[in-house]
Fold:
Amino acid sequence: MRGFDSLIGQDALVKRLRQAIESGRVAHAYLISGAPGSGKKTLALGFAQALFCQHQHGDACGECRNCRRIESRNHPDVIIIEPESDRIRINQIRSFRDKFTLQAYEGGWKIGIITDADAMTEAAANSLLKVLEEPSGQAVIMLLTTSSSVLLPTIVSRCQTIPMARIPRIRIASFLETEHNLPSETAIVIAGLADGRLGQAIEMASIDNLEWKERVLAMVTCREGRGLEALRLATALSAEPEAIEFCLRVLTSWLRDMLLVSSGCPQAMITHQDRYSELIVESKTCDEFVVSQAIIQVEDARRALQANANRRLTLDALLYQMADLTSFSPVSEVYKYGKSSRS
Structure:
């Protein structure tokens, strides 16, 4: 990783942080907000490298000792706090405070990066507030969050806010083609699924995810035996729960594409551009209201699974229904069954 060069599509934010370093006007606290996979941690680590770099001012060489230690997460003056069991607790923030208030080991900057800051307990947030209220010397705290609205207003008010920008689809697709060797047709689809988030796009571009995508689309487009294919897919997904969220996103994007195509939108506006002809066929077989209700049903299933609904039963019911939208009927009551079991 080489400082800000590892980011794409965040030119305005990078310029702002570079200018802060070059002018010596680095704030004591920054609040970086953005959706999962939008590059928040990459930006924070790039900023740390730019501050510590031994060869460049306002940027990072990526090769010096400091840059390499930050990349490997073992620089003594860069403290990273992450959730434990989905929460950041007061003992973590107290430990952070103890380390952060000490003089820097190497006599320069000290940086604290708190990922998923919205996961702080109330006690942890109040403990952090004491650090923010007493800024000192060359010390910077960077809070990373998906939603600043859930943080204490007193914390937000003491930070400079940095909202991550959505990256244009074509730019993400170009990156995937160049850096991950994806075919152009596949790259543009993955970029559409990522919705402006490079980190999400990189994760989705894995071989496993690409295979899951094809399995979902094969189920909704096969000419015969869709019900059987739906149940096979449900069986496979119930055994691979980490793939469920991605597959539901693929399914939702397909349904939305059907609505776009039926309303006359051009090919360039849809996600699955490589299956435009199939979308035309599918959109003619289903009423727009039914497709809209199907999207709601996918979201209902997602929430049910998050609430511990029976995984296999929920997936069976959902995917079997999605296989034949011409006989669509709500099955939300099924999701209430067995919420205490994930199997």
In short: Strands lie at 29-33, 78-81, 110-114, 139-145, 160-163. The domain at 3-163 is CATH 3.40.50.300 (Rossmann fold).
